[in-house]
TrEMBL record:
<feature type="transmembrane region" description="Helical">
    <location>
        <begin position="185"/>
        <end position="203"/>
    </location>
</feature>
<keyword id="KW-0472">Membrane</keyword>
<dbReference type="Pfam" id="PF00909">
    <property type="entry name" value="Ammonium_transp"/>
</dbReference>
<feature type="transmembrane region" description="Helical">
    <location>
        <begin position="57"/>
        <end position="76"/>
    </location>
</feature>
<dbReference type="InterPro" id="IPR002229">
    <property type="entry name" value="RhesusRHD"/>
</dbReference>
<keyword id="KW-0924">Ammonia transport</keyword>
<dbReference type="InterPro" id="IPR024041">
    <property type="entry name" value="NH4_transpt_AmtB-like_dom"/>
</dbReference>
<dbReference type="InterPro" id="IPR029020">
    <property type="entry name" value="Ammonium/urea_transptr"/>
</dbReference>
<dbReference type="GO" id="GO:0005886">
    <property type="term" value="C:plasma membrane"/>
</dbReference>
<feature type="transmembrane region" description="Helical">
    <location>
        <begin position="121"/>
        <end position="140"/>
    </location>
</feature>
<feature type="transmembrane region" description="Helical">
    <location>
        <begin position="386"/>
        <end position="407"/>
    </location>
</feature>
<feature type="transmembrane region" description="Helical">
    <location>
        <begin position="23"/>
        <end position="45"/>
    </location>
</feature>
<feature type="transmembrane region" description="Helical">
    <location>
        <begin position="252"/>
        <end position="273"/>
    </location>
</feature>
<feature type="domain" description="Ammonium transporter AmtB-like">
    <location>
        <begin position="23"/>
        <end position="435"/>
    </location>
</feature>
<dbReference type="GO" id="GO:0008519">
    <property type="term" value="F:ammonium channel activity"/>
</dbReference>
<keyword id="KW-1133">Transmembrane helix</keyword>
<feature type="transmembrane region" description="Helical">
    <location>
        <begin position="215"/>
        <end position="232"/>
    </location>
</feature>
Amino acid sequence: MSDNTTTWWTPDPSSGVGSGDNAWQLTAASLVALQSVPGLVALYAGIMKKKWAINSAFMALYAFAAVLVCWVLWAYKASFGEQMLPFVGKPNNVLGINTMLQQSYLPAIGVGQQFPLATMIYFQFVFAAITVVIMAGAFLGRMNFYAWMVFVPLWLTLSYTVGAFSLWGGGFLFDLGVIDYSGGYVIHLSSGTAGFIGSYWIGPRLAKDREDARPNSIPGTLVGAGILWIGWNGFNGGDPYAASADAGVAVLNTNLCTAVSLLTWLLCDTLYFKQPSVIGAVQGMITGLVAITPAAGVVSGWGAILLGLGSGSIPWFTMNIAAKKFKPFERHFDDTLGVTHTHMVAGFVGGFGTGLWATKEGCAAFGLTNPGGAVAGNGIQLGYQMAGACFIIGWNLVWTSLILLFIKHVLRIPLRMSEEQLLIGDDSVHGEAAYVFGPCEAHDPEQGYIHGELVDTNTDEPGLTGTNTSHITSEKEPMKNGESSRNT
């Protein structure tokens, strides 16, 4: 039904930008969307073993689609609508045409933006989606896909919306003065914490998959990593909600911190392992992107460099030294891609660094009343940042655990794949393989092939029939090489 009293958004001539804010916001949202699809889809498919390429990419693809449906039905309003509790808004749908056409407005903050609400809904959706996709990196190579299908909407509803409203939507952490420019806490600290505790409840991969976890396609991994890096221009550059000077600062600082972090991680690898690692460099790139996220538009270029030094060294140490020294962590917390280190640790480093190096001018440019961080004489900002981090970590430790236990014990859906699925991989879970050599029927028993082997269909026993077997390929496991976690 139409509501003729609704005022549709039109560009405000007095803003001086016309529809420029809307154009930039949609562009930024599209850049962030590309980080998930195809960015992390390609990165996951390339960085995992060949037998898990399909499953890993599919977990990311499913999450992207599932989050969008939940987002428009109830989760956007719970994250950015009218306040229901100090940490969450009132859930509701945003599907009405007049709702989508009206000017974007955050009711719990009392601030409007120069673009329609539909633009804000989509922009915030891509952030919610990539949070869940990042978390998947900790569960790859063994999580039951059916459990993942249930987990995604539950975690979005019970965890993500709380962090988003508390810090961005006008909740109690926003009122306290915690600075999270673009999701260092809402996205990275939450996904890293959930990945950490979730890896415990789901259980580890097969021992041989952990011992030999070499990527099946490093060039494919680099393609995904490149999309992730450049897409971060929209990730951080879009959060002033305007085509403003601060957006430009955020983009420059994002790239500067990332470059310093990558080089720092590379130096640590070279000094400790005696050889540079491209996968290690990708890890350093990611930690730089994560650490600058809560600080992007409120720190100076020097602050971005200092954050890059911290994000390239501290997560490197926790991943390659501390975690290996602490045997219970290695044994019970099988975080496949090291999300605990690249997102939880790096997100904490970024949040703490924001409390140190936020400038008064940067905060003002972003529309904050905070008088900067410790470098600007406002040392209490460090306390606010730690309070925000403790809440996000605590909430996710509890609720991620409760959700997974509910799926396992109430819904009776196993969190981990069966042993047969873990042994075979994609072909057993999805009936598909990433790289099929020979006829396209290579996994179809009705056409005479099972897992790439020609079968005598009269006896149902695997075996070669006929005389031309040149197209048959055997797949052998690579030799174990004892690679460090920097290459997983």
